[in-house]
Specification:
The protein has helices spanning 6-21, 25-41, 51-70, 73-90, 111-126, 136-143, 157-165, 172-207, 216-251, 269-273, 278-299, 306-324, 329-365, 368-385, 387-390, 393-443, 447-468. It is mainly alpha-helical and 479 residues long. It has three domains: 6-165, no CATH class; 172-256 and 444-468, no CATH class; 263-427, no CATH class. The protein starts with 5 loop residues before the first helix and ends in an 11-residue tail after the last helix.
């Protein structure tokens, strides 16, 4: 069930109305359970296709309860290994022999995010952070919440439980803000990502056609353009989806966590990942990076080596985060690029701090030219690394062979400069538009202006939809 389809709009309207008709926490939980079942059912053609998902959920629930009752590190370790092994088999990782795979088609959507939620509950249970058992109903609604089922955000269980138990009360302004957030999400998905996706399809088709011979610099320019529009497409598609689900969550009394915070304002790769897919970054920071750093610190006691422990921990964390995105070899390359980017960024910070001191490094980083180039380089590294998300391994080899090391370096330099300038120009345009909006709100006391803005956005969505007929599929559902 696509989030931008008329079917989903009718579905969510019914869910919102039922939720507000029966606002008690128990009734809302049952409405959510039914909505989750309908949503998941829309992805399958037969009951058999949902059985592996049900088995995965039962295994996860049993593992959480076993760890909670024993508080044993050994039981936690066994549960983690078993659950991860089942996940790898169900996701059909490419290194597995066919004998390990289930011999029938089944639902893959949602498995990755269920994994994160179950691991979070297992670890918290062992550490004594679950004050009481998780009920089967609470677990199913947490693990299979239809708003976050396909691509997050990854909400912590205590936050979910607190929202579920809180009385459902919305005033007129909260309802308007929720609708405004939803419409903004549809603009990102149905307008910006639709246009970027159309450009990407056209450009990538020519770029990856091995039978077409292009002049070297024309091919390089085409690659830079393709990588750029894909990055815009991915951001608008993913961030727009988040706007939609967070706005819908507000209407249903759920406080879902934010997943984006102006990522292209980041001046470093590490800062970027504190702004992009934030719930994923926070999960890996809590459950992989911090424990790994503690283990390394316990084994390496040299003060001189201490700053470099973060380099190792960042590389491993971002490697795993990158590999999580897919099951084939090209995602290993993506993970290596993510790990390399984070590690090099940390090494640069250590080097500059030792050379200039914290205040000196901060002063240099605030210089306009440095900040502009840093933003451009951050965007560029991410955009070029994202190539791994839209090619297969043979196509990546084709690109690398045609561009060569020199072409890749030149692509990085050219796009870094262009991106730095364009991002600064975009900031100025946004600042101007915000000023015009605020002036309109003040002169009309807010009501007329905000409704006109909302109407204009809806008209824009309808106009673009008439050209493309439907919004692009949600891209992160595939990861």
């Amino acid at each position: 069930m696509a989030f931008t389809s008329l079917t989903f709009i009718a579905f969510i309207t019914a869910v919102v109305l039922l939720t507000h008709a029966m606002p008690s926490p128990r009734a809302r939980a049952l409405v959510l359970l039914g909505a989750n079942a309908v949503f998941i059912g829309s992805y399958v053609n037969s009951p058999l296709q949902v059985l592996p998902l049900l088995a995965f959920l039962i295994l996860g629930f049993g593992a959480i309860e076993a760890v909670r009752r024993t508080r044993s590190v050994k039981v936690l370790g066994l549960a983690l290994v078993l659950f991860l092994a089942v996940f790898i088999v169900l996701k059909k990782f490419s290194f597995l022999d066919a004998a390990w795979l289930l011999p029938f088609p089944y639902l893959l959507v949602g498995l990755s995010y269920i994994l994160f939620r179950v691991l979070h509950l297992m670890i918290d249970a062992q550490q004594g952070e679950l004050e009481r058992p998780v009920s089967p109903l609470g677990f199913l609604n947490y693990a299979c919440n239809f708003l976050t089922f396909t691509a997050g955000p990854i909400q912590r269980y205590p936050d979910h439980a607190e929202s579920a138990a809180r009385p459902l009360k919305l005033d007129a302004d909260q309802v308007f803000q929720a609708f405004a957030r939803i419409i903004k999400g549809f603009v990102k998905v149905g307008v910006v990502s639709a246009i970027a996706n159309w450009l990407f399809d056209s450009m990538s088709g020519r770029l990856l056609d091995a039978s077409v011979a292009s002049p070297y610099f024309a091919y390089l320019a085409l690659y830079i353009g393709t990588a750029t529009v894909y990055t815009v497409y991915l951001y608008a598609n993913f961030a727009g989806y988040m706007d939609i689900v967070i706005g819908l969550g507000n209407l249903l009394g759920m406080n879902l966590p934010e997943n984006f915070n102006r990522p292209f304002q980041a001046r470093s790769f590490l800062d970027f990942w504190s702004r992009w897919h934030m719930s994923l970054s926070d999960w890996f920071k809590t459950y992989l990076f911090n424990p790994l750093l503690r283990v390394l610190a316990g084994h390496v006691t040299s003060p001189a080596a201490a700053p470099y422990l973060g380099v190792i921990a960042f590389f491993i964390t971002f490697l795993v985060m990158g590999v999580w995105h897919g099951t084939t070899l090209v995602f290993v390359v993506y993970g290596l690029l993510m790990g390399a980017g984070a590690s090099l960024n940390k090494l640069w910070q250590v080097h500059m701090t030792r050379r200039l001191g914290k205040k000196g490094y901060k002063a240099v980083a605030e210089r306009p030219l440095y900040a502009t180039l840093a933003r451009g380089m951050t965007f560029t590294y991410f955009a070029l690394a994202l190539t791994c998300l839209w090619v297969e391994m043979p196509q990546l080899q084709l690109l690398a062979g045609r561009l060569g090391v020199g072409g890749l370096l030149l692509s990085f330099v050219v796009l870094s400069v262009l991106a730095g300038v364009m991002l600064q120009a975009w900031d100025a345009l946004v600042s101007l538009s915000v000023g015009v909006r605020d002036l309109a709100l003040r002169t009309s006391h807010g009501v007329v202006a905000r409704n006109l803005v909302l109407a204009a956005q809806i008209l824009l969505i309808a106009t673009v939809a008439s050209f493309f007929h439907k919004a692009p599929e949600f891209v992160y559902r595939a990861f």
